[in-house]
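Bench log. Compound arrived from synthesis this morning; before running ITC I wanted a structural hypothesis for how hypoxanthine sits in the protein. Inputs:
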Amino acid sequence: MTSKQLNESVEYLIEKGFDKPEIGVVLGTGLGKLAEDIESPIEAFYNHIPYFPLATVEFHAGKLIYGILEDKKVVVMQGRFHLYEGYDLVDVTYPIRVMQRLGIKKLFISNAAGAINLNYKKGEIMLLEDHINLQGGSPLAFKNVGEFGNRFTDMSEPYDPEMRQKLIKIAEQEKITLRQGVYVSVLGPQLETKAEYRMLKMMGADAVGMSTVPEVIVANHLKLPVVAVSVLTDECDPEKLQPVNIAEIIEIAANTEPKMIKLFRELIKEI
Ligand code: HPA
């Protein structure tokens, strides 16, 4: 990755009309509907943006959408790149760097995750307080990382406390149960074994998923304030583990999505 490449990606988007967005949003698996609410949308398919990771066939629908939401200029990623699709961590986080160069000042991230904390139920939302990186790599482990920020990026407070407080308040006002906890990212794409769920719980994780952490590390590298929420789609009880039902996971994500959209829209309003 070079600055020249990033600049070419940004130039392409500016020419399409992406005009200084203030807020970037990453929409997780099964959570793409917020994009439909954007006014005066301009779309850029990932496949058409210079130097964006080359998408797999399955992933042709991934796009960046620019427009207005709650009177703010936003850029939304509908679909993200996952490590388990065969990209490397620099590729996975390339769009975050592009959005930052477009001008975003805040980043909101969503994902679908399994509940490790068994007090948390599927269909609930969890605000990330902290995370554990179990993906076996870092998006900052490349030679010229120093050109883009501090190699030894501080991670003592990875999720912006001010925006977290705002989300907690919004959830209270909207009567949405908002759990808080630690998200652990795994590589996937296979789901976890019972023994792995036990291990993740012992580590202190409340939810597990296959994304978000690389993007949050890069946001911190760029000193870009970030918040993230997990839509809890399944309960990872090692003592009663059922075979995974992906259709159910997607259905629960879709049913829970309106609450997530409400939280994000209200936060955009307040910022
Ligand atoms: N494990 C990992 N990723 C997930 C899960 C899970 O149980 N549920 C949704 N994404």
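What the model suggests: DSSP finds seven helices and nine strands in the chain. The longest helix spans residues 246-270.
ITC booked for Thursday regardless.
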